[in-house]
Task: structure prediction
Amino acid sequence: MLPGGRAIPYRGGSPAAGGKLGGGVLALIRNRKRGASSTASVRARPENPHFVHDGEKIRRMLKSLQQNETVISLYFPDRPDKEYASSVFEVGRGTLLLDQVSDSEGHEALLARRKFRAMSKYKGVTVTFDCHLAGLQEDGDGVRYQVAFPERVFYPQLRETFRLKIHDLQIPIHIRGHSPDGAGETVAGQVDDIGYNGVGFILESNLFIRKLDVLRYCVIRLGEDRNLTFDLRVCNVRAIVKGRRYRIGGKFVNLSGRNAALIRREVTRFQRLLRQQEREGGSD
Result:
């Protein structure tokens, strides 16, 4: 009924009484149903569990980086091999202040491009977030970058099963074990993948290795004077070439805090090397 009291006649009849709805009304209902279905499918799409979206959680993470004076590396996603050291100076409600980098070319690049990425360590885990430069803040202590508060932070908390495939990097590993005649022997293999809690490697040897064995004094050669030493509990042994070549996977045991931190640093470094190889391969 209109405000003046005049009723609008319904010429199509009542649906309940067998009347027919007009084509326009039916189309509108169909479109609404289709839109509702589309919305439901979007809402049902799972978010990446490695991203933190909660603003208060992000604030606590950034406050921890600030209070611990943790180094933050600023870089451009298309140039991850070039990093500029900074730190969190202040965590505001809508903005974040980062200390100026010491590299003059890096400083000019950050000002020119305005969009970059920050990477640091939070509770031993690598975290990254995007930065959008809003301006500069200057005082007697120096210059600081004012960036928008990040909407999300990449924080791979589900890291127990994480493994990085590094076979192409040809990283050697040395294993001490026993040959079939019982004699002690040290042999070299090649790392296939590595994670924060374990490693997989390829071994060509007649060493007698079984599941649940603990291999003592394993060494991964990372370069000159940079060795990672650990014990490894064997989780699986798979023959690649019967009787000669094996793929062995295991978990670190009795890992010192120093070596655990070294593993995390090296995994991050391996990730950068692999990204660099992908870019160089794609440019050929």
